[in-house]
Amino acid sequence: MEKSGRPEKEWLSGRSVQLSILVLLLEAMLAYVVSLVYGVTQESPNAGVGSGMFIFFLPVLAVFAGGIAGALTVGLVLPTAWLSEVLGRRFGSREAWWWVPVAAGAVSLVVVTVVAPLAGGAGAGVVALGWFLTTAALTVPALLRRSRRERIFKPVILWGVAAVVLTAVLGGVGLATGVLKEYRPPALTSADIVGRWSDGQGGTVTFTADGRVTAVDVDDDLDGWDPEDDATDPDGPEGADTRCSGQGTWTYEPGGGTWSQEVDLTIDSCGFDVWNVGGTASRPTLYQYIGDPDSWDLYVLRRTDGGP
Q: What are 237-285's pLDDT values in tens digits?
């Protein structure tokens, strides 16, 4: 059965499914580049951790991404295409293209309504942004499946790759010229370390100008510490006390740059690794990795006395 020169269920054809998967993968690549550039501008632990492992697992991630794109096509893009056709037939004499973003907005609203409660304390602005981005992500593949071009895949690939490359280039230029501000830890001195620091869970470390340090209830068994556990409980998951208290000495090493600054504590009753410097100039932090550095779980100390 033909309608407007097109099969009634073209939205369900293999060509539409393949095209949707391709577009979703290109959108994922674009989103990844944007997230990388954005991440460089945000406060984070030491740069470069885990990048080599990402390259190693890239083939596996590509297969996984293809599976996710297929699931999203079946679960979201095809329903968007179907709904746009239903709305076009119900409220108009033809299936106009503008019903696609309307349908995408409706489907995205359902998705955001389901996902937002799972995100915890996501604000209205974040929810609105998520709805807008999801709508755009669904609109593009649902619109492209309307194309009557026989060889649509080649231009989609060319334009998609061009968009990804252009975004990466613009992001790099923005970072190089300072238009986008790359995050770097604050450059501290020994005097900036002096004072009282807290982990926010009852543990404190107090540095004095003469090189002495006092630790009270600070966790020093981070390899086995779970940040999801009740950190106010001094007992670990097996009932062992993982917190330590004592006095000792400390030194600050500026290293070769802000990323390599270290604060070394020597306390007989505590087995600390060196502390890294993070935060900002107005809110510096000292942190250690909890377990695998690739997880980016951090044990953080923050100043509580307003500085020296």
A: 444 467 899 999 999 999 888 999 999 999 988 888 889 999 998 899 9
What gap in Å lies between CA 215 and CA 267, rounded to an integer? 8
Secondary structure of the chain as H, E, C letters: CEECCEECCHHHCHHHHHHHHHHHHHHHHHHHHHHHHHHHHCCCCCCCCCHHHHHHCHHHHHHHHHHHHHHHHHHHHHHHHHHHHHHHHHHCCCCCCCHHHHHHHHHHHHHHHHHHHHHCCCCHHHHHHHHHHHHHHHHHHHHHCCCCCCCCHHHHHHHHHHHHHHHHHHHHHHHHHCCCCCCCCCCCCHHHHCEEEECCCCCEEEECCCCEEEEEEEECCHHHCCCCCCCCCCECCCCCECEEEEEEEEEEECCCCHHHCEEEEEECCCCCCCEEEEECCCCEEEEEECCCHHHCCEEEEEECCCCC
State how far Cα 158 lies from the chain centre.
Answer: 27
Q: How far apart are CA 154 and CA 164, in angstroms?
A: 15
- Name the region of 285 (left: φ>0; alpha: ψ -120 to 50; beta: rest): beta
CA dihedral 136, 141, 145, 151 (to 10 degrees): 130
Task: Return d(Cα 185, Cα 284) in angstroms, integer.
Answer: 8
Q: How far apart are CA 174 and CA 156, in angstroms?
A: 27
22: tokens are 């391709």
How far CA 72 is from CA of 218, 274, 279, in Å, comes to 45, 45, 37
pTM summary value: 0.75
Residues 10-65 pLDDT 10s: 545 678 889 999 999 999 999 999 999 998 998 888 654 445 455 566 677 778 88
